[in-house]
Structure formats: C-alpha cells, structure tokens
C-alpha cells in the first residue's frame, strides 16, 4: 500500500481544451439564406415543389436557429430590416409571397406551403406566429399589393387555426391605426377569413383570446364608435362583422350596466336614483325593456350574500325583493317584460338549487306588488315556461294559478250581473 501523500492538482498553468460542441456558433444567416434562395429559384412558381424542397432542407439546414430568416425569405424574398424594407447586399429571390399573384387561390396555395412546413417541423410554430406579428408591425413599409397578399394569407391561416388570433394585437399599433392602415388591412383579412370559413369561426377565435371586444381599436380614438365601425365595414362588404361588433358592444354595455347597478345597490343608493340612472343607460345602449329587466333581476340577486340553508333563503329572498319591488315594477310596463322576468326567475331558481322551493313565493310576492300581472303568470303557466325544472315549478304554482282562474271567472260573472 502506498502511504505517500498524494500531490494535490493545481489549476495554475493548466488549459482545458473547449469541446467543439460547447463553442457558441456565431449567428450568420448568409449561408442559410443563400441555400434557401437557391432552392426557391430552382423550384420557381411550383408551390408543390417548394413544399418538398422546404421539407427536405430541414434535415440539412438549421431551421430552429434561422426561423426568422426562413420566413422573411418565403414572404418577402429576402431578410427584412426593421420597418419592413429588404436588407441591402443580401441574396434575394423573386419567388415569394410578395411577388405572387394577388388572388385568393394563390394565397390559399401559399397557406398550404406554410401549413406543411410547420406540421413537419413543429418547433417552427411559435416562430411563425412571431413572424406574422412582426410583419403586421411593418405594414407601412410594404406596398398596397404586398399588404393585400399578407392580409389574405393571414385570414386563411386564422380560419384554419394555423395561427392564434392574438397576432391581431399588432394591428392596434398607434401609427398603423392613425394612418388607417390597420382598418384597411383588417377588411382584406376578415374577408378572406369569412370566405374560408364563416363569421362563427371569427367570433369563436376572437373570444378565445379576448379580442372580441377590441375591434374598435382598429380606429383612432375620435372614430372609435359603433356607428363608425358599422358603416366602415358594412360599406366594405362585411356586414356580418359589423353586426358581430355591435352585438359585442351591447354585451359589454350590459355587463358594465349590471356591475354599476350592483355597486349602487351595495351602497344603498335611493331607488329613485337607481331607476333614473337605469332609464338613461337603457336609452344610451338602445336596450329593450325585456333586456333591461333581465339585467335588473341579475343585479338585484347578485348584490346580497345568500343563506346556504334552504329553509332560510326563501324568507331572505322575499325580504330582499320587497325592498326592490319599485325598481322591478318600473321596468315591467309591458306584458313581454313581465314574461321575461318570470322566465328569468324560473332560470335562477333552477340554477341555484337552494331556491328550488322559493319560486312560487317569489312570484306571489311580485304579483301582490303589481310587478307581474295575472295575465303574464297564466301565459307563463300554460305555454311560455322553460323546460328547466318545469314539473317542479308548475306543481308549485298549481294552486295559485287555480285561485287566479277562479278569481278571474268570478270577476267576469260580477261584470255580467252588473250589465
């Protein structure tokens, strides 16, 4: 056994050779660009051949590292400098999206090229979305024809779910909006999207990313109204989009109104003030009385913490609704409004299990307070009720409805005798 003290290694003067794989490769897209441009020049306008070339090249070229360069070339024919102009002293190709024919069929064929490429190399998906966002910010640097082609392509890609609608946030850029570039681009984009799918596809995708209420931002602040939006897109042949935006604004206005009403009730504001405010907002938002009574009911029922015990919640609800009967009465001047309220109450009692046995007592209270009439109750009972909890609620109302019918018959009989 060797008892000699082992000599400790020293660091001084020692050099470790860096492994080749650990060396950081310098970012130099020149060779990559030359290879892609050469391939595109050889395949020309044959987009099937382009797709095959791109598929094969992914095995030899570093798509992951040079994704932006790749997409710049496919769209603009070369690398783009900030602002959207082609970089100087770089190899370019005429066989790209911007030099293609400006028609929907050609753009659909280009969409297929991008779709095949990204399906083959999934890691390019995120980089492609970033590229589209960047291109939208560069719109001012492109010609009108280039913008139109990009708009059509983007609409097709959105329709087919190849990219997320979140890319549209680039169109809200202040400079693009101010000069009208965003709105004009959006016309072409939404036309190709709807041609490829339909307005439901647009609505679903926009809602998914919270863009459904932001379309007004395509216009400068002084033109950001539902009227201007509607006229602009209707004149451009996109009435479906105008109707969708109008509907979204109405939904947004209803939510805001409901929130404000809840706050007013929470503060204990006088009902006269609440009624006056509600009438004003109803007029502003062009809401019907039927729509308004639904909002009021939801606000009234949302501004209180309900007891979890079923036997106590009915008593609490009656007390609470008595307090707001004047407000409910102010917005049930029409038979349809009364019916809308009854349907809303039925829906609420069904959706909130603790209220299942409260329905009849709530309706009787509102009848006594002149909020709903016997005509509305009888119409609800005989034909206009919802399917939700139908058997339970009809059974609850049976005796009261019989009493109403008897009272009506007696009243008619008295009138006949008087005559």
From TrEMBL:
Please give the PROSITE patterns that the UniProt record associates with this protein.
W2
Q: Which domain of life is it from?
A: Eukaryota
Boundaries of each W2 domain copy? Answer: 247-414
Q: Matching SUPFAM superfamilies, A to Z?
A: ARM repeat
The record, for InterPro entries, names: ARM-type_fold, eIF5-mimic_regulator, HEAT_5MP1_2, W2_5MP1/2, W2_domain
BP GO annotations: regulation of translational initiation
The keyword Transcription is annotated on this UniProt entry: yes
| Membrane listed as a keyword | no
GO annotations of cellular component type? cytoplasm
Renumbered to this chain, the Polar residues biased-composition regions fall at 1-15
What residue spans carry the region label Disordered?
1-27
Indicate the secretion signal residues: none
Q: Which UniProt keywords apply?
A: Activator, Transcription, Transcription regulation, Translation regulation
Family assignment from sequence similarity: Belongs to the BZW family.
In Swiss-Prot or TrEMBL terms, this protein is called W2 domain-containing protein
Q: Which organism is it from?
A: Oryzias latipes (Japanese rice fish)
């Amino acid at each position: 056994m060797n008892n000699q003290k082992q000599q400790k290694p020293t660091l001084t003067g020692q050099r470790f050779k860096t492994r080749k794989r650990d060396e950081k490769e310098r970012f130099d897209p020149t060779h990559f660009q030359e290879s892609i441009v050469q391939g595109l020049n050889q395949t020309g306008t044959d987009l099937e051949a382009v797709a095959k070339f791109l598929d094969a090249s992914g095995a030899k070229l570093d798509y992951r590292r040079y994704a932006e360069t790749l997409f710049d070339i496919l769209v603009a024919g070369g690398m783009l400098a900030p602002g959207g102009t082609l970089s100087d002293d770089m190899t370019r190709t005429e066989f790209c999206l911007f030099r293609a024919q400006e028609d929907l069929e050609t753009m659909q064929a280009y969409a297929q090229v991008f779709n095949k490429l990204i399906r083959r190399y999934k890691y390019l998906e995120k980089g492609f979305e970033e590229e589209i966002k960047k291109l939208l910010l560069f719109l001012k640097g492109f010609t009108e024809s280039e913008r139109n082609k990009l708009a059509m392509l983007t609409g097709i890609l959105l329709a087919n779910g190849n990219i997320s609608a979140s890319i549209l946030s680039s169109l809200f850029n202040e400079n693009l909006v101010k000069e009208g570039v965003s709105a004009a681009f959006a016309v072409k984009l939404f036309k190709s999207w709807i041609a490829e799918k339909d307005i439901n596809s647009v609505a679903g995708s926009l809602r998914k990313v919270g863009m459904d209420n932001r379309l007004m931002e395509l216009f400068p602040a002084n033109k950001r109204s539902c009227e201007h939006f509607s006229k602009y897109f209707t004149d451009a042949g996109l009435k479906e989009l105008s109707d969708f935006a109008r509907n979204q604004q109405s939904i947004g206005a209803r939510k805001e109104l409901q929130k404000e009403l809840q706050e007013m009730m929470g503060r204990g504001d006088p009902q006269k003030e609440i009624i006056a405010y509600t009438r004003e907002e109803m007029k502003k938002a062009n809401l019907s009385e039927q729509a308004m009574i639904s909002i009021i009911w939801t606000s009234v029922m949302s501004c209180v913490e309900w007891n979890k015990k079923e036997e106590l919640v009915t008593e609490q609800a009656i007390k609470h609704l008595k307090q707001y009967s004047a407000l409910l009465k102010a917005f049930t001047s029409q038979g349809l409004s009364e019916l809308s309220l009854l349907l809303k109450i039925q829906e609420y009692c069904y959706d909130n299990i603790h209220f299942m046995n409260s329905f009849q007592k709530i309706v009787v209270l509102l009848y006594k307070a002149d909020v709903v009439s016997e005509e509305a109750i009888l119409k609800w009972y005989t034909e206009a009720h919802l399917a939700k909890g139908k058997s339970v609620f009809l059974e609850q109302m049976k005796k009261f409805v019989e009493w109403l019918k008897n009272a009506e018959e007696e009243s008619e009989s008295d009138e006949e005798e008087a005559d």
